Amino acid sequence: MGVLVLDLGVYYVIVGPKASDLFLKVASYNRFMAAGFFVLFVLLGLAKPQLILFGVVDLLGGIWTMMALRKG
């Protein structure tokens, strides 16, 4: 799992600053999906309810990014 996170982190560091609209849209959709999965994990009893707080932060970040893309 750590290698996957490292790989994604490198991708974000290298590609993220280029501010590609496609990259930012995909990243936002992934944040929405992560929030949904966090809720699902809690509903299935696989995680504690506190995980939903992380999902809310992710969801808000995704919304913020999408709003910024629409403005620009």
Task: Explain what this protein looks like in three dimensions.
- By secondary structure, the protein is mainly α.
- It has one domain (18-71).
- The protein is built from three helices and no strands.
- The protein has helices at 2-15, 21-43, 51-71.
- It is flat and about 40 Å long.
- The mean pLDDT is 88.
Number of strands: 0
The topology string of helices and strands comes to: HHH
Give the overall form.
Answer: flat
Which stretches of 5+ consecutive residues score pLDDT under 50? none
Structural class: mainly alpha
Q: Give the termini distance in whole angstroms.
A: 35 Å
Biggest sheet, in brief?
A: none
Percentage beta strand? under 5%
The count of helical stretches stands at 3
Mean pLDDT: 88
The Rg value, from CA coordinates, equals: 14 Å
Percent helix: over 70%
How many individual domains?
1
Task: Give the helices and strands, then pairings.
Layout: H1 2-15, H2 21-43, H3 51-71
Helix pairs in contact: 2-3
Note the main attributes of this structure.
72 residues, mainly alpha, 3 helices, flat
Short description:
81% of the residues lie in helices and 0% in strands. It has 72 residues and is mainly alpha-helical. Helix 2 packs antiparallel against helix 3.
